Amino acid sequence: MSVRQKEHNNRIALVAYTIITCALIFSCHGCKKNTASDSAKSQFKIDKLFERGPLAVHVRLDKDKITIAETCLLQFEAAIDPKYEVQMPQVGAELQNFGILDWDNLGDRLDENNKVVSTFQYRLEPFLSGNYQLPAFTFQFSDANRLAENKYTLTTEPIDIEVTSLLGEDRENLKIADIEDVVDMSKPPSYWPLWTLGTCIVITAVIIAWLYMRRRRIHELVRVFKPAHEIAYARLKALVKDDLVAAGKIKEFYERISDILRHYIEHRFDLRAPERTTE
Q: pTM above the 0.70 mark?
């Protein structure tokens, strides 16, 4: 075998390997996509298909039997030709025995037939136990280029659902216990003794503090004693200022000098000079 023939065979093998690898990758991707789609649909116990013209609607319900404490998931999946537009039903206006806890718009996508798929989900809760029907829902669709012209409708069928009570089958045999006798209300605790004690403590503390501060201020008083000669000198200055001699009051002048002298002796030597001396 020549070198050129070997190279040609290697190229053919490489191309074949590449084609096989790409085919495996796309097939795996498609498997994953289908598996995810099948898994999403498998969570619903009821799946009904309704078709009219370019519109196909799946109505799905995850449970056909729930307790009054549980919820159920209702899903609408509408697939329509891109030339048309679909209007989802007003679920809240149609429901009578169920309330909407939550809802979600999962967005639009294209399916394998190039149809626009819109998906809406509603979380429903029952009001009372019993056998009910989810009502028939009406979908409207029309030509996207001629919205003002005729509109078409697609109406689904009711779906049966059972809501059971939490009390079970023995609820008819249940008895309501008698109410208890009237019980006197307990009196709230009285805090007056504590308030009185606290008030007395505060008043006592204020009085003690006041007495302590008063005593402290008394102790802080400092007596300043003037020497006897300064007192006598101040009184002599006052006497000179009065100028009794010029006024002719000689006797009064001498009396005051004598008084100043006697008080000086008393203050200076601690003697009762005014009582032991004469004027």
A: no
